[in-house]
Amino acid sequence: MSSSELQYIVEMSGQWLLPVPNTENGIPVSTRLQLLRDKAHAWFKVDIHSFETVLIKGVTQTRKNFVAGGHLYLWNAQEDTATIFPIFPKPSQQSIQRDWPPGALCSVPHSYNLDVFMDPAQNLIAVVYVADHETVYIRLGTLDGDDVHPQAAGERLFLSDNSYNSLETIRAKLKGFGRHIALWRRLDDDNWASLEEVWQLQIWDWQNSTTSNSILNGGVPYQSNTTIDFCFLGNNRLLVITDNLKLYSIEDMSQTPELLACFLMPVSLMLRCLLPTDDIGHSSQQVQQTMYTSDPTHRLLCLTASSPRTSFSSSQVFIISTRIFFHFDRMAAATPIPWKHWGPSNSRIFRHPYHFKIHISGNQVLQALPVGTRNSESMLHLMDFSPLAVTNRRGLGRVVEEPSTIDISDSTGRSGGSLTTSLPYVQVVLSDRKFNSADSELQDIWIDRDRIYMLTADVEREMFGGDPMNPLRPIDQIEVVDI
What we know:
- By secondary structure, the protein is mainly β.
- The protein is built from 6 helices and 33 strands.
- The strands form 9 sheets. It has a 5-stranded antiparallel beta sheet, with no helix packed on it. Strands 2-33-32-31 form a 4-stranded antiparallel beta sheet, with no helix packed on it.
């Protein structure tokens, strides 16, 4: 093995990356090594004033929106519409522009949609809907057409647990990764004696079967502040998030997911999971255009927590390295792992005002944090948690290796004491650009390997439809900064 090959392997590992097969295209190892190092260094010297702007209406009115592969993906639950909008896609990226008018996402009579999942990496759109006010299905289609997805086992996925089908679905979350799709449902149980909120989580291998026996059920006491969320950690693991973190194996889809470990949180919290959009799928043409992808065993997981008493003043943010979910004692399924044994060295906790913005990509975190005594403005902060972040920063940024301690509160707003965490990172503050927080100028942010995207609301106003009774809405714009 040559010196360049050895350095390339070390650099890939140190940036928590994996090579994508058959993408080297005859490029010498030394050139690939230099490109990798230059890319890791590039975001430390971002010119936040050098950007392109694209105008788009109605982004802030949608329930779901995210950026991936140079496109903006929107779903408006209230109006039952969806949009894919290209944002200066690069020549190597396929450009898609789609608009689904009301009724187009699902054309089944007497039905209504609960949630929509779009996976640009696999050209997949999945719509969970209720037919005849009772039966729940998931429709599988393509983003760039109206056909059934060519890799799908069928047009629709069916629920398998009939004992829960008689209960009304109040709320639903639909997520996917690779060949897996999971649906979480909150169910209306008329049996108030149980004092529980019933929920069900079902996982499908959508490329091989339209039915599934991989089902989890649970309940939460009524008037409890516990929330339920979940996320995929690679192709064979699922993390279910309540006030603690339960890790399941989903390798065998013919049975109930196997509990691998329970990771206890320090206090009871209302947790919401945020995963980067580059975790959505990983086998498409878009991903194949690069020579590497992030390692699922070494990514970042972001959990945000708030309480009824603090949600309008501050949020608690947990940045957790996913390595802990792949390296633990196999006896953990029988004995929950206390926070002090796994949390402090594998995470960082931050406390921010409620209107902060955050997005993650691989091992990098982008935050918009308020500045000043009145939090009237905000600035962008970038953090790199990869092992080689210090080496690649080339003297730029601030190295944070010392532990940090913050006070936290539980889901009821009561003090939960102080917590110390020590996951190292490098931080860069883009202090030469400020956003007006008072007017909610900065609506959302995203980061990927190549760009930073900033959704801002223009101060101009525009009347929609010519109807004087319609409210005035802001003209949204997305600013794109190359890294």
